[in-house]
Design goal:
Number of domains: 1
Number of strands: 0
Largest sheet: none
Number of helices: 16
CATH architecture: Up-down Bundle
CATH class: Mainly Alpha
Order of helices and strands: HHHHHHHHHHHHHHHH
Shape: globular
CATH topology: Growth Hormone, Chain: A
Radius of gyration: 21 Å
Distance between the termini: 21 Å
CATH superfamily: MFS general substrate transporter like domains
Helix content: over 70%
C-alpha cells in the first residue's frame, strides 16, 4: 500500500480543480456538437450512432487500458490522454474554419475523445486512491458528483450562448484552452506510485489477472450485470434527449439547455448531500437507493405529454439528485477495497463491461425511436431501473459486496 502524504489537499485539489475546467470545456463542446448534429440532420439514428461511437472505444480498450494505467505513470497517461483530445479538437476547429465539416468528421472526433477518456478516467480514479486518505474517499466521490452537476448546469447554457455568438471553430478553441489548463499542473505535481513488484508479470498476464480478480468477486459481477442491463435500457433515452426536446416538446437549444441544467442542479444537490452525509454504512445501500430514485425520474419523463416541458425539468432534477447516490458510493467502494496495484485494471474493466451492452441498444435506438417514438426508451429505461434497483436488495452477493471481495492478488 502507498502511504498518503499528510499535506495531500494542496497537490490533489490543484490537479482536481483544473481538471474541472477541462471537463466544462469538453461538455460545452459536446453540447454544441450534439446540437449541430440535431439541427443539421434531425435524425435519431445519427444521434444514436454518435453516442454508440462514443461508447465503443471504452468497451473495446477498457480491459487493456487499465493494465497500461497500472504499468505506467498515471500522471503521464493523463497528460497524453488530455493532449490527444486537445489536438483532435484543434483539428476539427480547423475543419469548421475551412467550411469542410461533414458528419463523419464528428464521428471520428467523438471516437478519439472516447479513446482518450478511456485512459484518463481509470488513471484519475486510481490516482485519487493514492492521493486521498481512505476515510475521505466517499466525500471526494460526492464532490466529484457535485462538480459533474455544476458542469451540467453551466455547460449547456454556455454552449447555447456560444452557439449564438461564436462560430463552431471558436467553441472548439475553448476546449483546447481548458485542456491545456488541465495538463499544466500534471507537469509539476508528483502523483504517488505504488511499489513495483520484483519479477513483474507480462502485460498480457496482468490483463488476465484483472479479469480473474473481477470474476472471483461475485458481488461485483452481480453489480456489473445490473449496470449492463440498466445501460442497455437507459442510454438510448439520454442520447435522444435533443430530439425529445425538438420533436416531442417542440422546443429549441435553450430549452434543451434548461433540461440539462436541471439535471446538473440535481447532481450538485445530491453530490453536496453525499459529501456531507457520507451515505449509509453499507455503501451499496446508497447506490441501490439512488438507482431506484433515478428510475422514477426517467419514467416520469417518458410519461409526460408534449405540453409537459416544465414537468420534465422537475423529473430530470430528480434524476440528477439521485445520480451521485447511485454512482459515488460504488466508486468509493472500489477505491477503498481494491488493491492500488489492481485499481487501473479493475476500474477500466468495470467501465468496459458496464457499457458493453450500450452499442447494441443504441443500434436499435434510432430506428425504434423513428418508428414508434422517443418516449418508448424513457419508459423502458425507467422501469428497468426500478425493477433492478429494488430486486438487488434481495441478492445476498450484492448486499455483501464489500465482505465478499477477493484477495488482493489472486492465485494463478
Amino acid at each position: 500500500m502507498v502511504k498518503v502524504r499528510e499535506d495531500w489537499k494542496g497537490p490533489f485539489f490543484t490537479i482536481w480543480t483544473l481538471q474541472q475546467f477541462s471537463l466544462v470545456g469538453s461538455q460545452l463542446v459536446q453540447f454544441a456538437l450534439v446540437w449541430w448534429l440535431t439541427k443539421t440532420t434531425g435524425s435519431a439514428t445519427v444521434l444514436a450512432t454518435a453516442t454508440m461511437i462514443a461508447i465503443l472505444p471504452q468497451v473495446l480498450i477498457g480491459p487493456f487500458s487499465g493494465a497500461l494505467v497500472d504499468r505506467f505513470s498515471r500522471r503521464a497517461v493523463m497528460i497524453v490522454a488530455d493532449g490527444s483530445i486537445a489536438l483532435a479538437s484543434a483539428w476539427l476547429a480547423y475543419m469548421y474554419f475551412a467550411g469542410s465539416v461533414e458528419v463523419w468528421h464528428i464521428y471520428m472526433i467523438v471516437a478519439i475523445r472516447a479513446i482518450g477518456g478511456g485512459f484518463h478516467w481509470p488513471a484519475m480514479s486510481a490516482s485519487t486512491a493514492l492521493m486521498v486518505p481512505e476515510r475521505h474517499l466517499t466525500r471526494v466521490a460526492g464532490l466529484n458528483q457535485t462538480m459533474q452537476g455544476v458542469t451540467n448546469i453551466v455547460s449547456p447554457p454556455l454552449g447555447a450562448i456560444f452557439l449564438a455568438i461564436l462560430p463552431m471553430h471558436g467553441i472548439l478553441g475553448i476546449d483546447v484552452a481548458t485542456a491545456a489548463l488541465a495538463i499544466a499542473p500534471l507537469l509539476f505535481i508528483r502523483i504517488p506510485r505504488r511499489e513495483k513488484a520484483e519479477g513483474r508479470a507480462s502485460y498480457i498476464s496482468e490483463v488476465r489477472e484483472g479479469f480473474r480478480y473481477v470474476w472471483r468477486w461475485k458481488g461485483l459481477l452481480w453489480v456489473i450485470g445490473i449496470a449492463m442491463l440498466i445501460n442497455f435500457a437507459v442510454n438510448p433515452a439520454f442520447s435522444l434527449l435533443p430530439l425529445l426536446v425538438r420533436k416531442h416538446f417542440i422546443a429549441g437549444a435553450i430549452e434543451l439547455s434548461w433540461l440539462e441544467s436541471a439535471f446538473g442542479i440535481g447532481i450538485v444537490a445530491g453530490g453536496i448531500g453525499l459529501s456531507i452525509w457520507g451515505g449509509f454504512k453499507r455503501r451499496i445501500f446508497t447506490s441501490l437507493f439512488g438507482i431506484v430514485g433515478m428510475g422514477v425520474g426517467v419514467l416520469l419523463v417518458g410519461l409526460l405529454p408534449g405540453s409537459g416541458l416544465y414537468y420534465a425539468l422537475g423529473a430530470l432534477l430528480l434524476v440528477g439528485l439521485m445520480n451521485p447516490l447511485a454512482n459515488g458510493p460504488l466508486i468509493a467502494l472500489l477505491q477503498s477495497n481494491v488493491d492500488p496495484a489492481m485499481q487501473g485494471r479493475v476500474l477500466a474493466l468495470l467501465g468496459s463491461l458496464v457499457t458493453a451492452m450500450s452499442p447494441l441498444s443504441l443500434a436499435l435506438a434510432g430506428p425504434i425511436a423513428d418508428m414508434i417514438g422517443i418516449q418508448f426508451w424513457y419508459i423502458v429505461g425507467g422501469l428497468t431501473m426500478l425493477v433492478t434497483g429494488i430486486g438487488a436488495f434481495f441478492i445476498p452477493a450484492v448486499i455483501g459486496i464489500e465482505e465478499g471481495r477477493p484477495a488482493p492478488k489472486p492465485a494463478d
